[in-house]
Structure formats: C-alpha cells, structure tokens
Amino acid sequence: MKKLLLSLLAVSALAFTTQAQTEKGNFMVGGNVEFNSGKTDGNPKSDINFSVVPSVGYFITNDIAVGTGIGYQFAKDYNYTTINPTTGFSTKTSAFVVSPFVRGYKGITEQFKFFGQLSVPMSFGNTKAGDVNGDNFTKVSKNNNVGVALSPGFAFFPSKKFGIEFSVNGISYNDFNAKDANDVSTGGSKNFNIGANFFAPKIGVQFYL
Length: 209
Known about the structure:
By secondary structure, the chain is mainly beta. The chain has a single domain, classed as Porin. It contains one helix and eleven strands. Strands 1, 2, 3, 4, 5, 6, 7, 8, 9, 10 and 11 form an eleven-stranded antiparallel β-sheet that branches. Strand 6 and strand 7 form a beta hairpin.
C-alpha cells in the first residue's frame, strides 16, 4: 500500500510538472530576434538586417492561449555597379510589427505537446533611398502588409517554466500595399501559400510564468 501511494504521488507530480505550463491563468513569454550582416563584393559597406518581436500570451483556459507580438524591423542595403559607381544607391527600410495570435496545445507525452498557432501578422513601414555611401536619405514610399498564418509545431518541456519549440510554415495569406512619397498608390500584391518544409523548422523558446 505504501509503495502504491508513493507511485501515485510520483505520477501526480509528473502530471503537474507537464501540465502547469499550459494551465489556465498562466503566461507564456517569448519572441523572435534576428540579426544578419553581410558585404557583397564591390559594395562600400555591409548590408544590415535586424528584427526584434517579443511576444506574450495568456492562457484563457487549459491549453489555449491568446496574445500578441509587438516589435520592429530594420534593413539597410547597398547597391553598387562596377560599370559606373556613381549610379549606385542604398535603401533603408523600417517597419512597426504587430502580430496577435491564438495558440492551442495537445499533449502527446509528459514532456511533449503538439500545438497549432493562428496569427494575424501586420507591418507598417516605409522605404528611404540614399546615395551609394548610405547617406542623404529621402523617403520614397510607405507600405503596409496584413496577413493570416496557421503554423503547426511541437514543444518540448525540459522544466516547468521553460519550453523549446519546433514549428514550420503551414498555410498563409499576405496582402501587401505600397504608396509613394505623395501618398499615391504604387500597387501591391496578394499571396497565398500552403505547404511545410519539415527539414527546415523554426526553433524558439518560451517561458511559462
């Protein structure tokens, strides 16, 4: 009887450890940070791409969280022609990013859970053009992008407050629109994508509080 009681306590402890992350009333905190820099032969300086989008979610019920990511994207690129270096130019783009989401989990084992995330990523930014050395920038356009994305993945929980995630692109739709410096539409695009590359997953972490 004593051994049975101890076994039941051990099972209960495992269940609490794995379920506590996604229980109603908890928070999940994570996000994305990216930085890339590289120099093309002939260009005077290196291109720079930077993005930071922290996110927070709240579990409105067990295994279902709602939240949003809010952040900023920046890129500076140089374009140089060896035939006539004076015709080279540079561009600088920046954007404010908002991405509300709903995420649902489904337990597999004590430490693994499948999840699906439906998000509505939005960005609002502008593009500036400058000279070949990356100076004297002038605003040439502004743009906005609104999308919908459904992404599957799974999470591994090595501890009660920490999870490692692997996700792939699933189904997405994006509506992009641009205007010039005089606020006149210069066109846009609408794109629908379906499919997932399981050999190139996105890897991230989440903290559960």
